Amino acid sequence: MNLPRKWIKPLARAGYSARGLVYVIIGLFALLAAFGAAESKDSEGALEKLLQQPFGTLLIWVLIVGLAGYVLWRLVQSLFDTDDHGHGPKGLAVRGGLLASAFTYSALALFALSLLGVTSANSETDSGGLAGALAGFVSSHWISLALAVIFSGVAAAHFRKAWTRRYQDHFEASGDAMKFIDPISIIGLTARGIIFIIIAILFVYRFLNAETGSGGNADTPGLKDALEFIRDRPAGTWLLAAIGLGLIAFAAYSFIEAWWRRINVEDA
Question: What does the DSSP assignment read for 86-150?
């Protein structure tokens, strides 16, 4: 194995850890927001909060390295098919999702750099991932509908991965470890899937509003909007608290991936 491949494994594990850290903050603030003790945070809000902590600048730099590693690993997974998804319609859809994930987290890394003054920030594109990049076109109701379909597919993939325990295929963990990995993974993946399906619903609303000629200049729906949508439902306090705990479980799932995930760069 050449030197670049040797670096991919530790960078990928750092990337999963970075994702976990972001979701710890998002989950905690969702939990606090449920009872009026804070406001919900999206990924960018989580980074802003991290910057405010002692040694925040150092933490952001460490996170940027982790996010860069995660983007690199997602690109390797997508382009070189390390998990053997294949070239069929389903496999290409999964690999396309991995590529979109690389794009999303590269945008988040750029936003983190902007917090440090290294790059300039654009709230529409730098911090919004796939949806943010299309924000200038979302006023078209057909783009909104397409994004609704995409996020619905991502949500379905999370539910399927959780409920069929497909995540187990990628772990190198003992039977004893899987006893606590399983519930954490199922809860975390399901919670994130719920967030994605709510974002899809918000895009459907955007589609319908565009049809009637209203809402054309509304902000692009994102994670924070999904959390606020949950909060505003009947029993929203308890629903948001449950989602907050679920997102913390997803953070734990990310840390589990950092430790036990099979990083099979040998198959690239």
Answer: -SSHHHHHHHHHHHHHHHHHHHHHHHHHHHTTSS---TTTTSSHHHHHTGGGTTSHHHHHHHHHH
